[in-house]
Amino acid sequence: MGLLWSMRPVPETKPGRRFQKNNVQTTVKVVISVYEGHLANGFKHHTPITSASVERSSLTSGVHRVEVIEEGIKGTLFIPPGSGPFPAVLDLSGGLGGRDEHHSALLASHGYVSLALEYIGFLNASGKLEHVDNTYFETAFAFLKKHPKVCPDKVAVMGMSFGVSVTLAMAAYSEIIQPKCVVCVNGFHIMPLDGSLADVYAALQQNVDKIRYDEKMRFIWRDLLLPIPDDPTKKVEMGKIKCPVLLIVGEDDQNWPSSESATDMKKMMEKAGNSHLLTLLSYPGAGHLIEPPYSPHVRFSEFKLLEAKTKVMMVWGGETVSHSRAQENSWQKTLAFLEEHLYDNSRETTRC
């Protein structure tokens, strides 16, 4: 798979491009070509010696994709083939906004009903950005639980990047969201007690002077939330979490202080006596964008600032080989974690 995860944009393309498939219902087509000699650029002007095409799909045959716009929530529901009922995952992507369906499509292909929830980037009638409150996530979780294809007592939450703080806060405080387990990828636990997304955004805006830049003036955000506060009222109370937690960390994350946050979370859980619920996977040389395996490593790319409605170049971090190995290993461990806690080590869905 090295031919896939080591891919780079050709030099003449626009800088900051990120290899990303928006439409999960169609396959990714990759053409592998062999040329005479070494080519640094100008591939289009040369005839390859030979070529082969491969196709990759996020959806297995029979998975149903359903648009969800009801009960005040917006998202996409993916349902595996079969009669069910199935375990389920509430999928909270990162701070880019919109709807990232890639993880949910793959999870449905592995036997989980998954709801890719849209929760960032909503604009009101005047065009101003609005932040959803905690009730929004509770409504989404309740919607998933009562779906006829879902085992109501086997629902997990998966948060990536910005979605991690929401995942942890809901698991710790919500009386409605009581997940069977949670998966968190490269995020943080910094959120005021009884706080919301609006509070997190406000804290970030207060620390804009901590933004750093690399040698090409690309944004590095990880210092926005450093140092990790000592005040427990400014962090999710990890001792209140009562379900298994899988925490995935890229040690070269340049977007969030995920390593420092993970270390503090572990200490908090050890002090509270619930550290037996924590599984921590920390990967040296891995950056922020830990995607499912065999997707090209992206060290930096263009990013839209929702508040300012402008685009900047963001540094995500990671070294290609180490990052790609982390993507493969963490995805295998994620599937094993969900299998253990949602399927009770059995694929007999009649147990639901």
UniProtKB/TrEMBL annotation:
Gene3D superfamilies given in the database record: Acyl-CoA thioester hydrolase/BAAT N-terminal domain, alpha/beta hydrolase
InterPro entries, alphabetized: AB_hydrolase_fold (IPR029058), Acyl-CoA_thioEstase_long-chain (IPR016662), BAAT_C (IPR014940), Thio_Ohase/aa_AcTrfase (IPR006862), Thio_Ohase/BAAT_N (IPR042490)
Top-level taxon of the source organism: Eukaryota
SUPFAM superfamilies (alphabetical): alpha/beta-Hydrolases
Pfam families: BAAT_C, Bile_Hydr_Trans
GO molecular function: fatty acyl-CoA hydrolase activity
Active site, UniProt feature: S161 (charge relay system), D253 (charge relay system), H288 (charge relay system)
GO BP, one annotated term: acyl-CoA metabolic process
Domain Acyl-CoA thioester hydrolase/bile acid-CoA amino acid N-acetyltransferase: 1-68
Family to which this protein belongs: Belongs to the C/M/P thioester hydrolase family.
Protein name in the entry: Acyl-coenzyme A thioesterase 4
